Amino acid sequence: MSACRVLSVLFVWSLCLQCSFQASAEEELRTWKDRSGSYEIKARFVAETDGKVTLKLEDNSEVEIEVDKLSLGDQIAIRSIKKRMAEDDNPFKSKTKSDSPFMPKSGSSSSSSGSTTSLPEESVPTAGKVVDENFTNAAMVELVPVSAESWSYEPDTVEMPFADHTKPIPFPNKSSIHERFGRAVANSARTHFVLSRTLTGFGRDPDKTTIMLTEMEKDRFAGHGSIDGYWEPVDLSAGGKQILLKSTNRGSNGDLEVQVLALGQKGLEPVVSWKPYLHGDNNRRNVEWAAFLGTDRIITLSQNDELVVWSYPDVAPISQVKLKNHSHPVVSPGGKHLIFYNDGEICFLNTETLQTVASISTPNLHGTSLAINAAGTRLAALQGNQLYVWDLATGELYRDMKLSVMTAFKPMAWVDDNLLVVGGSNLVDVDKRIQLWEFSNSDFAIGGQGNCWFYVSNWGNRKPGWMNVKLPHPQTDQALNAAISDGTYFAIQPGTEMKVTSNGFDDSSKAGECQKALEDALRNAGYKITDNAAVTVELSVTRGESRTINYRMFGGGEEQVNFTPYISTARYMLDGKEIWKSSTGNYAPMMLHMKQGETVAEHVKGYEKPNYDFFGKSEIPSYVPRPREDGSNTLGKSELVIR
Predict the structure, then answer these.
(1) pLDDT tens readout for residues 516-543
(2) Rg of the Cα trace of the chain?
(3) How many whole angstroms separate alpha carbon 42 and alpha carbon 30?
(4) Is 603 strand, coil or helix?
């Protein structure tokens, strides 16, 4: 059952009931909801006393409600209000940026559409404790669906310093042939990177992990240290001083633990560690993914689909969501949204409330890596060698392209709004749908603001370290212009002759209409339609695999319906081989608006029909390389070497 299709929220939540909190200044007007979602009012927060909240309505009358009868989002909002008020009452609070006469120069930082989050000043907690917390005590949240017809996602980004670095940052060579590169992550502003190396002791000595923290603006290491066991960094705090790691020890249940290290005066020091899913009911208790949510929370995801939010640094479970067939999530650049695939949908959650703000129906992306660009406007997913890119301004699929290499096991890196590095080494032009370039010797890539930092591996006695490349580099532009002028490198480019055919249509009259619609679209895009063209476009409509959908009704009750999608496809063929494809399917909506007397099955049946309009509106390729015998489809290749 898809968590995004459920229409109710269940709470197991408690706030401090013995405290009394009075607003020192009038709060903003906001919409408050009860936990059933049936009632809502517009009011201002006045006070919270003995577990009851007083709210002032627009007519200045007051109402009272118990805290645990409010929606989870409102309960979290009360925590934020109380925290903000406590800070306002602090006589020793630091000045805000707006109090300073030294304001940033206009135009000195990057800007983009949507809200912007600046890099915060970071205070590092000192604890060094091990805690034992039961995640099952967290509030259970069932995600409320949002209709795709009312897309209202607002991208958020983070200010990123101008990164015009050309000097490589070398690392010490391996201490042993048994030392291996682990993983690298960056903070959201790309000012700090952290990288791990693991060393096998083979039983004689303990296995060790070396953690290296780098300040990229200063081109230097900020700190490093070793810890026992196999660990990999999974996130870096916004300020770049705290490292979140998960264990990767071998054997059954070897990935149970997470911990935070912080950069202190004595180097990297432990803050807290715990085993989030130790109290789970089965043997799938390993931690798959984790991330910081702001400065006071951490989120973890188990192999058993349990997504849990924890307070930090005290570590107490706050809320949990049960997923199904998930992907590894990604946090938006500004930290306001959590994005993940869940059983047929990409869900966008508000990180403060865990409420769904948007969702997209998708192909199966179970286990897929996701990547969001620095502007928060494009989302990429890589399933095997199939790359999908969505435009988050509209929620529409922007690109669906097949790569020549299998690269899904390594994270993707957006360089800018168009260029994407997959597999740590392959540069893709999303707009033109081209694999532009390959950078050899790279194990990992981190991108942002027109730059890409490649971690150069130490195989073959090469010196390891970070190397920055400004992209696209001149050789890429030169090679692309030459390939377009040559006329033989690309199988498809503007002006190419094509022939359109159709098969697999139950309705032959529709086949002719769809064929004509695509021919007209191709002509408008600058292509020629002829009967003897080398490139043939084959149109088809096929039945997909039926699936069961669970709908939960307002007021209680649940109903199951079977739904069979139809897949509309345009395959571009050359010499009997597929060189490009565009396809779509019809999907049942997550939220139903039924007519009087209509059943769920009857309403859903109305969506069970082919999408013939797709062919006149389908994505049309711009540049598609001819297949090569070596399987490579890049324009060129560069070897990265640190000297």
Answers:
(1) 999 999 999 999 999 999 999 999 998 8
(2) 27
(3) 5
(4) helix
